[in-house]
Amino acid sequence: MELDPKGKKGIYIQKIIEAFAVAGWAAVMIMMVWGTLDVVLLAFGYAVPATVPWTEIFNVIALALPLTYVASKKSHVDVSLFTFRGRTKRLADFFSGTLFFLFAALLAWQLSIQAWRSVRIGEFDQLGIKIYWFPAKIALALGFIGTAIVVMFQLIGQFGKRNGK
Questions:
Q1: Do 129 and 50 touch, CB atoms closer than 8 A?
Q2: Rounded distance, CA 153 to CA 2, Å?
Q3: This model's pTM is above 0.85
């Protein structure tokens, strides 16, 4: 992402992106502790309530929020069938970036609609305790919104470089 590291806005945006990555890491850690505790308790005939639904929620959070950080570092998983150079490489990068932006933006749009609906109705499951689904849906929407924004800035940066800026 083309951010001015010395500018205030760039620093704040980078901090938000890093916070998303830390939240994803925290979700993985919580999920690991929860799962380990459940396995240990099962050995003694007990269980942690609602382990599977909570694991699903933490999986979504752990996947979605760090996407923005990964996109900002341009560390996407990349498989190259062809190696391009110069202008052809820039065009291929711009084309693939545009396709990824469209994918992320459309997914963010639909996920945001679903997240808002989930918040409005207070969507939950009753499995001994209430398990609210909207935090995972909000995290999923935020992850793809952030990713779409980062890729959009990368595309704008590529366009500016191509025009000699």
A1: yes
A2: 6
A3: no
